[in-house]
Amino acid sequence: MEVLIKRRKEIKRRRVLKNKFLGFLFLKNICSNTYIFIDIFFRRRMGHLYLITAFTDKDYVIGNKNGLPWNYREDLKFFKEKTMGQVVIMGYRTFESIGKSLPGRINIVISNEVHGVIYEKGCYMMRRLEDAVEYAKENYPLKDIFVIGGSKIYQDSLEKCIFDKIYVTRICKEYEGDIFFPYSSLITKYQPSSQLKSFYHPELIFEEWIYISS
Ligand SMILES: NC(=O)c1ccc[n+]([C@@H]2O[C@H](COP(=O)([O-])OP(=O)(O)OC[C@H]3O[C@@H](n4cnc5c(N)ncnc54)[C@H](OP(=O)(O)O)[C@@H]3O)[C@@H](O)[C@H]2O)c1
After folding, report:
1. Are residues 129 and 194 located together in one domain of the fold?
2. Are residues 36 and 69 in the same domain?
3. How far is the CA of 62 from the centre of ligand 1 (A)?
4. Ligand 1 centroid to 95 CA: how many Å?
5. Confidence category of residue 46, pLDDT binned at 50, 70, 90
6. 107: which strand partners?
7. pLDDT tens digits along 59-87
8. pLDDT confidence tier of residue 149, bands split at 50, 70 and 90
9. SS3 for 128-145, per residue?
10. Under DSSP, is residue 92 helix (H, G, I), strand (E, B) or coil?
């Protein structure tokens, strides 16, 4: 009799264990499915497409002698904060002017020529802007994509892309330059949505522009 009771207890204990295990599997399954669902949902793309630039108020100068005509630490800091950890797309001359890949970011350089130096410096190379944007969206769906210049790339992207936002650092001071922002292409499709005057440099205004359609 005692043996029989022991046996029954053992069977009951095993049944409880089995149910616990099945419950655990069930929960694990739900968690895993939820995870897959979230993954798929967010992979549809959470990153945004931005253009970021700095130009002079009067003539829309962005560059001089393949470099920046100014040196505002605050603007560089702003650029770094926005683009860090994200994807940046630039023209070959802008890449040349920087002279390296921007650290902590996925760098894509647009060029019609194959320049070994692009790969040596750890950047991707694409022949067309559209391909670069597609590649970034496909491979880095959670990252923001920043078109960072120069003039040709700005022009091309303003014609072909719709940006979620455009970051402009307006420089209220005259600088000599030989490369200009395609301002007319900007104002036909976008308008400023916010402006913030720099506390440290009275000549710097940080603006955000949004799409208003053409
Ligand atoms: N102020 C700012 O916010 C800012 C930002 C970025 C740059 N900049 C300044 O701007 C100047 C550089 O600009 P940039 O206009 O001379 O040159 P860029 O746009 O940076 O690069 C031009 C080169 O990129 C390639 N490229 C550009 N558009 C292309 C397209 N649609 N399809 C295929 N390839 C394309 C071509 O390279 P290949 O000839 O190799 O084919 C072209 O020669 C520098 O002075 C830089 O300092 C200023």
Report:
1. yes
2. no
3. 11
4. 8
5. confident
6. 88
7. 999 999 999 999 999 999 999 999 999 99
8. very high
9. CHHHHHHHHHHHCCCCCE
10. helix
- Indicate whether residue 102 lines ligand 1 (CB < 6 A): no
Closest atom of ligand 1 to 55 CA is: 1
Q: CA 85: distance to chain centroid? A: 8
pLDDT confidence tier of residue 122, bands split at 50, 70 and 90: very high
Q: Per-residue confidence at 18, pLDDT binned at 50, 70, 90?
A: confident
Q: What is the 197 CA–ligand 1 centroid distance (Å)?
A: 28
Q: Is 97 touching ligand 1 by the criterion CB < 6 Å? A: yes
Its pTM stands at 0.83
Using the mean position of ligand 1's atoms as its centre, give its distance from the Cα of residue 28 in Å: 51
Same domain, 109 and 142: yes
> Domain of 142: which CATH number?
3.40.430.10
**Ligand 1 contact, 91 CB (< 6 A):** yes
40 and 54 inside one domain: no
Question: Is 179 touching ligand 1 by the criterion CB < 6 Å?
Answer: yes
Task: Provide the domain limits for residue 152.
Answer: 47-211
Residue 132 tokens read as 């670069």
Q: Whose CA is nearest to atom 21 of ligand 1?
A: 91
- The residue count of the chain comes to 214
**Residue 47 CA to ligand 1 centre (angstroms):** 24
Euclidean distance between CA atoms 129 and 113, whole angstroms: 14
Residue ranges of alpha helices (H) inside the chain are 2-43, 73-83, 92-98, 116-120, 129-139, 151-160, 183-187
